[in-house]
């Protein structure tokens, strides 16, 4: 199994671990410390070696930060984790705060005292974060102290070793462009910006640029590394040499100067001493990186990671790979749904068994490299936890008469998939059908949207919510995230959300996943992946439009649809979608599954 169901959280760790940390802070002359859920790369997936927030508090979510002062502490999480954090963390030790509505900066402004020293790990807090923290400390009469060594590491006795996943070469036949082509384009962009070099801190940016993949973190084929790219000449790749076979080393040596991670700060200092103008992304680069350049005489050019946008706008080879991966994945998912419909009415299924079975169907393709994230298998009240992770202690039997939510994906060499379906188990209520249909209406609105060049995800986000809003409902996560090409299942800079400020461009892949989650009852989410495309001309239109091509091909559960709430346009969309699913996926499944698929995609 790619997924573990062990319970990784221990709320009882909060008090003793906070005490250990406070003792170490006192020894160092510090009055407080911040512990983010981040490593030096600011990635979504953090190796066990860097799971400091989990060690300290027990919280296992993908976003959060803890603040520890002498007599007070708190943990900050966003709306996805408001339920989870209370289950995993001792609220007496770390009271929960909302990361967005009541951020850590406001908490510090209230609790920091004049003369106190607040410490941070210089590699774990970005340039942008540190600016705000310095303002807060200055206003409170306190001092922000950046540290090269993390005091928490000194008291974490059983800390795991750093990962040493082997690096592989990603073939041009799947990447669509050679690494040299990508490097040349990046260097041209640096010259246009009058930059002498850029620093890449995101492993997925480096993996895409150099056409490599790795296995240092769960579910995402990333080789943890840093890179500097000059406007001319060879880039430098800072990576543990033990991850490289002889053949991979030979190939990378032709493209880059290979260095050990311990030499990264020295390499940055060399850029500074040369008086270089160095581009860094202030939202991604740790303040320690910026200081290593400026303290030695370099100048910073602050700009978005220059690889993010080229990586997000997929070439035709990458898009064709994504289409092929999604069709293969759809067949596996239809096999799973047919099995689920046979077994669920018997009452013997539980969350773990369902997740295991879905992975089994994906493995049966023969080409699954990994799942793209831990499957969210949510029965009853667990379905209402947006990013629920089933464990052996939380595992529920799937009840009759409620929707069941399953959100999952696969990593294939030609593409990364992510799909959510909400399934009826037994007879569901009219209210459940209404809520499902409101979510479906929002999903259809995004899928059928037409919009001009320059439109951002924030402008589209309302389309997914408007019918929910009319009914006094909403959901506390974005409507859509970017997806990589055999890389991260969550990829920036594109997103459909209130904070999605990047214009959408043809070739980007985004999820379309509105939801609704009555707390303590059940969850509903419907997710397909969409490619941004140039839309067909609209009769009488005055300008070209963009739209979406849906590449996820799995039926929606018609047993949960209240047809009376759909417009004729929405009903036609659902029927056309199901006709396409039946035509494209039907030939890829067995006779029994085809019979199931015919019924599941009947016109309404």
Please tell me about this protein's structure.
It contains 19 helices and 27 strands. It has 604 residues and is an alpha+beta fold. The chain folds into three domains: 11-155, Creatinase/prolidase N-terminal domain (Creatine Amidinohydrolase, Chain A, domain 1, 3-Layer(aba) Sandwich); 168-306, Creatine Amidinohydrolase, Chain A, domain 1; 313-593, Creatine Amidinohydrolase (Alpha-Beta Complex). Strands 4-3-2-1-5-6 form a six-stranded mixed sheet, with helices on both faces. Helix 4 (104-111) packs parallel to helix 5 (127-140), helix 11 (264-273) packs parallel to helix 12 and helix 14 (316-343) crosses helix 15. The chain is globular.
Strand content: 15-25%
How many domains in all? Answer: 3
What is the overall pLDDT average? Answer: 97
Top-tier CATH class of the largest domain: Alpha Beta
Gyration radius (Cα, Å) is 25 Å
Q: Regions with pLDDT < 50 over 5+ consecutive residues? A: none
CATH superfamily of the largest domain: Creatinase/methionine aminopeptidase superfamily
Task: State the total count of DSSP E strands.
Answer: 27
Architecture of the largest domain, according to CATH? Alpha-Beta Complex
How far the N terminus sits from the C terminus, by CA atoms, comes to 38 Å
